[in-house]
């Protein structure tokens, strides 16, 4: 886009107190001899600047005399070319948008209208997933739900999502996010959570039992595709979207707010909650590697928790631990540590 007028911005930047006083002097006297105004150091340059800015004008009836220009009229005259160009650009933008509307309609009908696929679309590559998520987030008006199992979030992933998250929150859209407990021990994740929480995001954590998904305004959801690290399913069918949101809400109710600070009691509570989740997975017969993946922790950390669980149960082996857990039961005792009938019976 062109400038307001050649040199106008530069002239405006050169105006100072002297030009204001000179203009006021002319306004008060109505007409002033131009030679009088040009007298003195830099007087001629100041007069020329005000003449070019239409703040001073030559008298139409008395040669050599200068009169004050009306600043509002000067602004209209100086800005007219730029305003005309802006209006032309606006009309061009509107015409372009109107031409593209027909293509947008085709795009939405092909991608978002439930049909033979039952309102489910497979997105098999990462670029398509990112494009859809960005589009749905930009369109969201009320609420976005996200659940992100897998423990600590990668630095590059958080940086990529930060700008989008800020943009959504500043539009007044509510955002609720679920992480796993292990995300609380990642410095990068904690810093991200602290930042977005300050501008309105709500974040809770849970040990296990929720799927990777995003839901937008109860009208669309994106869920992870089985056996794919990058692919997703886009859900538009209302029943499927309701099912995904219902799963989120049940997990949200059981989750705890992401802590603003930590105490020894809080850390111990998180550790015990993670151990209970591991216990449930042990009962299901999962191996350590699968448990670690479900819990969003390293294999070594998982094995350390399993060993601690076996010690507390008094189990002589992993098989014995599984028997105690499944046959005798495990719960939290009043002190909040792993215990229950199994721990009591194991020592008999």
Structure description:
Helix 7 packs parallel to helix 8 and helix 11 packs across helix 12. The protein is built from 14 helices and 13 strands. The relative contact order is 0.07. It is of the alpha+beta class and 348 residues long. The protein has three domains: 112 residues, Arc Repressor Mutant, subunit A, CATH 1.10.10; 138 residues, 2-Layer Sandwich (Endonuclease, Chain A), CATH 3.30.870.10; 83 residues, Winged helix-like DNA-binding domain superfamily/Winged helix DNA-binding domain (Arc Repressor Mutant, subunit A, Orthogonal Bundle). A hairpin with a 7-residue loop joins strand 9 and strand 10. The protein is elongated, with a radius of gyration of 34 Å.
Features:
56% helix; 15% strand; Arc Repressor Mutant, subunit A; DNA binding; 8-stranded mixed sheet; single chain; 3-stranded antiparallel sheet; Endonuclease, Chain A; 14 helices; 3 domains; 348 residues; disordered C terminus; alpha+beta
Outline of this structure?
This protein is α+β, with helices and mostly antiparallel strands. The protein has 14 helices and 13 strands.
């Amino acid at each position: 886009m062109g400038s307001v007028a050649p040199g106008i911005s530069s002239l405006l930047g050169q105006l100072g107190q002297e030009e204001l006083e000179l203009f006021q002097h002319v306004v008060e006297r109505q007409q002033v001899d131009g030679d009088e105004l040009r007298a003195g150091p830099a007087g001629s340059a100041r007069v020329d600047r005000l003449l070019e800015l239409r703040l001073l004008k030559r008298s139409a009836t008395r040669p050599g005399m200068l009169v004050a220009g009306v600043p509002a009229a000067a602004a209209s005259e100086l800005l007219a070319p730029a305003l005309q160009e802006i209006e032309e650009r606006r009309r061009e933008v509107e015409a372009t948008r109107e031409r593209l509307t027909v293509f947008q309609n085709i795009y939405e009908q092909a991608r978002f209208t439930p049909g033979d696929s039952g309102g489910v679309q497979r997105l098999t590559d990462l670029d398509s997933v990112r494009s859809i998520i960005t589009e749905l987030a930009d369109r969201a008006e009320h609420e976005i739900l996200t659940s992100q199992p897998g423990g600590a979030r990668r630095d590059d992933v958080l940086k990529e999502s930060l700008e989008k998250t800020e943009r959504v929150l500043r539009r007044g859209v509510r955002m609720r996010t679920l992480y796993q407990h292990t995300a609380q021990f990642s410095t990068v994740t904690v810093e991200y959570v602290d930042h977005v929480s300050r501008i309105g995001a709500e974040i809770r954590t849970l040990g296990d039992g929720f799927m990777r998904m995003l839901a937008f305004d109860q009208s669309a959801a994106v869920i992870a595709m089985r056996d794919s690290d990058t692919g997703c399913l886009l859900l538009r069918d209302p029943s499927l979207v309701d099912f995904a949101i219902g799963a989120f809400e049940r997990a949200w109710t059981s989750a705890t707010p992401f802590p603003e600070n930590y105490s020894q009691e809080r850390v111990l509570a998180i550790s015990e909650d993670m151990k209970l989740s591991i216990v449930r997975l042990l009962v299901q017969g999962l191996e350590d590697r699968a448990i670690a993946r479900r819990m969003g922790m390293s294999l070594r950390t998982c094995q350390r928790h399993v060993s601690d669980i076996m010690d507390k149960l008094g189990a002589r082996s992993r098989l014995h631990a599984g028997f105690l857990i499944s046959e005798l039961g495990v719960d939290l005792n009043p002190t909040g540590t792993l215990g229950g009938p199994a721990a009591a019976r194991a020592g008999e």
